[in-house]
Design a protein that fits this description.
A hairpin with a 5-residue loop joins strand 8 and strand 9. 22% of the residues lie in helices and 28% in strands. It contains eight helices and 22 strands. It has two domains: 9-62 and 198-347, lpxc deacetylase, domain 2 (lpxc deacetylase, domain 1, 2-Layer Sandwich); 63-190, Ribosomal Protein S5, domain 2. The longest helix is centred in the C-terminal third of the chain and has 16 residues, at 332-347. Strands 4-5-11-6-7 form a five-stranded mixed beta sheet, with helices on one face.
Length: 348
């Protein structure tokens, strides 16, 4: 198992080949080709499928053990990143098979918004879900990715999420508080001896690309997430992190990573009606002189946070397919596009 921090492995001459300093110099297929050896994938996965548009999935029967059976309802409150408004969220167990869903308890009739891809309404600096009510109005809930990441990684497939506002609280800018409460609240463990489920196994690469940014689902013997970022700030530069799906590791390595932004662009975003609730208490802020509010929790905390966002966005599939999800300079928009491509394969 390989985890990377700091500078990109592409700048290292590990294979006796001189690699470019910046991935932006390559097209997406070359990027993936070069990245695979460093993340436990075979290069021939790309060689054997290059130029082919067809992708496929396979169902794999496996046994489940030590899955969360139930959890105690809990409540957290805080300010929304973009709205700047206080909201309260209460999460409670839901009937098996109902999935994860939000309930806007502040609205007439308490409308339900399913936490799935069909509900995605926009992806500007966060993921927003929306549902049309019986009266024809549109009810929304925004910045759902951190909470959904914590629920999905902890095996909470069915949850009723009551919220009295249009945005999930940012809390400390990470998923740490959600993950901590879930870890403390899980009541019992269940060992399934005779039942099995069929996770989807990605058989061929699925790629979404926009200029030099991409996100891909690659065939893999495990479910793994790898994320790379690159910003023209010395304090960030080029960073990577790779993580294999595991609840205990998530709480330590991924959940604590906080959202981040740039001092030079804050005023422009506020004028656009965004980040009204952002502050040095709930977001890392970087300038060309360095971080305004150190210390960081990890040397590559920004890359880990982007990985957290990817996990939360892909949770809208319901279950994570078995694949290596590999992203570089991606966004909520690209995350959701990849999830929708995978969803189409599931439906077909």
């Amino acid at each position: 198992m390989m985890r990377t921090t700091g500078k990109s492995p592409l700048t290292n001459n590990l294979l006796g080949v001189k690699f470019p300093e910046k991935l932006s110099e390559l097209d997406w297929s070359a990027k993936i080709y070069l990245l695979l050896p460093f993340f436990d994938l075979f290069i021939d996965l790309i060689d054997s499928t290059r130029g082919k548009e067809k992708v496929s999935l396979m169902r794999k029967e496996i046994m489940l053990t030590n899955l969360p059976e139930a959890f105690t309802a809990f409540t957290l409150s805080g300010v929304g990143l973009h709205s700047g408004l206080i909201s309260t969220v209460t999460i409670m167990p839901a009937k098996p098979g109902t999935g994860r869903y939000f309930v806007r308890v502040d609205q007439p009739g308490q409308p339900i918004i399913q936490a799935n891809l069909n509900s995605v309404s926009q992806t500007t600096l966060s993921t927003e879900l929306a549902q049309e009510t019986t009266s024809g109005s549109l009810v929304k809930v925004r910045t759902v990715e951190h909470l959904l990441a914590a629920l999905s990684v902890n095996g909470i497939a069915d949850a009723r999420i009551e919220i009295d506002g249009a945005e999930v609280p940012l809390l400390d800018g990470s998923a740490k508080l959600w993950a901590d409460v879930l870890a403390e609240n899980t009541l019992t463990k269940q060992i399934i001896e005779h039942n099995s489920f069929s996770p989807l196994v990605i058989q061929q690469p699925i790629v979404v690309q926009e200029k030099d940014s991409f996100v891909a689902a690659m065939p893999s013997f495990e479910t793994r997430f790898t994320y790379g970022i690159e910003f023209p700030y010395d304090a960030i530069g080029n960073q990577w992190h790779s993580w294999t799906l595991n609840p205990s590791d998530f709480a330590r390595e991924i959940a604590p990573a906080r959202t981040f932004g740039f001092a030079e662009g804050m005023e422009q975003l506020r004028q656009a009606g965004l980040i009204k609730g952002g502050s040095l208490d709930n977001a890392l802020v970087c300038s060309h002189q360095g971080w305004l509010n150190p210390p960081l929790r990890f040397t590559n905390e920004p890359a880990r946070h982007k990985l957290l966002d990817l996990v939360g966005d892909l949770s809208l599939l319901g279950n994570f397919p078995q694949a290596h999800f590999l992203a570089y300079k991606a966004s909520h928009k690209l995350h959701i596009q990849l999830a929708k491509k995978i969803s189409l394969l599931i439906e077909n």
